[in-house]
Amino acid sequence: MQDKIGMAVIGYGGMGGHHARKVRGERPGKFEVIGTFDIREERQALAREKGFEAFESREALLSDPRIELVVVATPNDVHKEIVIDALRHGKNVICEKPVTMASRDLEDMIAVANETGKFFTVHQNRRWDPDYRTAKEVIESNTLGRVFNVESRVHGSRGIPGDWRNQKAHGGGMLLDWGIHMLDQMLQLMGDRRLLSLYAQLTFITNEECDDGFRVICNFEGGTSYMVEILTNNFVNLPRWYINGENGTAVVDDWDRHGKIVKVSDWENRECVPIQAGVGITKTMAPRDQKTIKKYKLPKPKSDWMEYYDNIYDVIRNGAPSIVTHDQQRRLIRLVEAIIESGETGKAVELE
Prior knowledge:
Elements lengths: L4 E6 L3 H13 L4 E7 L3 H9 L3 E2 L3 H5 L6 E4 L6 H10 L3 E5 L6 H14 L3 E4 L6 H11 L6 E9 L22 H13 L4 E9 L9 E8 L3 E8 L9 E5 L2 E5 L6 E6 L10 E3 L2 E3 L10 E4 L10 H12 L7 H20 L3 E2 L2
Parallel strand pairs: 1-2, 1-4, 2-3, 4-5, 5-6, 7-10
Antiparallel strand pairs: 7-11, 8-9, 8-17, 9-10, 11-12, 12-13, 13-16, 14-15
Helix pairs in contact: 4-5, 5-9, 7-9
């Protein structure tokens, strides 16, 4: 293919290396991964070992006319500087998430993209997570009827990773790490529904400088409550997804999509035998007659992360609309700022 896009990666760490290897291996007809740059010599050496050209400087990479697309996969605090530099060098840019740490910085980046006429977007890869795609199909297919409660969790037991992600100056903390992914998924699932208010708690159990977890409850118009929880000091994990609708419940236990759907099959049959509950008896919490419910397997829709890069190619070569838009990122960063405000003040925050 004569119309390949020359691509390079700035920041050849875990994610930068992932971009370079996956694109080279799975989309060689659309992209040519020319090289990388990293400020750490050991990462430069690793790039050369993997067969990539390791540029001697950022300027050298950005000045190379073969390169049309730059992936910025550096610590969060330097995203803005590098993205703007790349745009002014006439490159299209993919920035790793979070695009930046403040709305005003995002607006500066968008302004330069508009000024230069170059394509600028953000890598939101977890829109292709299989567990998310399963939850999305359950909700959008109306399988459970009107959904009134969604709980999305990621639990770990190792605290914050020991690199720059535990340093506030570099944009560390779980809200800006895993939180960005889960909140982006939430906004995608809720679509155009307005986010009315939220209440958040940030945790600092294993790290005093950065949040090592958070919990936020978001209230959307139409009566849907959506909780996002990222915790890194849990030794017994709760389900990855727990979804309640008026006609049933869906549970996605993990990333491998174990779980089930349980739906009511007979609303009219409400008879039950009281059960012993602790030191009392109850009808309200007694289990349903098994004849009035049915169990179903979870759907397992296909998911291919490389669709993201297919879209990047179509935007640059064919003028297609971008999957990840500026307005989506504006909404996401404003949401992060509201969560920080609620966590710091201990008060609910009204939005939109």
